[in-house]
Amino acid sequence: CEDCGKSLIGECRLHGPLIRAKDRVIPSRARLTLPHYLTLRVLELRAGNQQILGVFAKKVIQKRTQFGPYVGQLSTKLTRYDESRLVLQVLKDGGKYFLDTPNEDCGNWMMFVRLARNQEEQTLVAYQHCGEVYFTTVKPIEPHTELKVWYAADYAKFMEASAVFIKEESDVCPLPPVAKEPIDAWICSSCRSTFATFALLESHQCIHKDRV
């Protein structure tokens, strides 16, 4: 205590506690990369103060607008799985790797984009180009509309997932569309949820093990 000139364990009984000044909270790397015409909104607040976020447009975004590349860590397995986000993989040096984002300081804002559940809500298509993953708008996005994504046709085949919801035009993806083949669903033996690929099922089962 500088007032009584004593070194104390804990607070000074005579002069009381120190006034604590906290550092300013710095946004994560992913949040800092968000373009100025996009915004993050909290859609749901779960147990443990976990926020479910979505990316929304603040102004009209034109069709054929490209975002990316997606920033993540190359990994042979996922350390973080979210059923509302796309699982992404890339081909590097002959190997197939996950684009993993274990936390917000390891990725960019694209990690917050949720997957599209149907044709009406899909606004983006994800595809691989030169070892990177990009998102491109497939239609104009109006203000206050959430950006949602699904795989392009060729990328869906690479990911062993179902085909895209929106019929692709020649100018949407740099690769030509391929024939769409039906793929059997993978079923979780614990909760009976279905998944388009074995990689998704495997990641989902890891979550069950963590919970146990």
UniProtKB/TrEMBL annotation:
SUPFAM superfamilies reported for this sequence: SET domain
InterPro entries per UniProt: SET_dom (IPR001214), SET_dom_sf (IPR046341), Zinc_finger (IPR050331), Znf_C2H2_type (IPR013087)
GO biological process terms held by the UniProt record: regulation of gene expression
Every SET domain range: 38-152
Cellular component annotations (GO), alphabetically ordered: nucleus
Alphabetical list of Gene3D superfamilies matching this protein: SET domain
Source organism superkingdom: Eukaryota
The UniProt record lists the keyword Zinc: yes
Pfam entry (one): PRDM2_PR
GO molecular function: zinc ion binding
Keywords: Metal-binding, Transcription, Transcription regulation, Zinc, Zinc-finger
Domain C2H2-type: 186-212
Protein known as: PR domain zinc finger protein 10
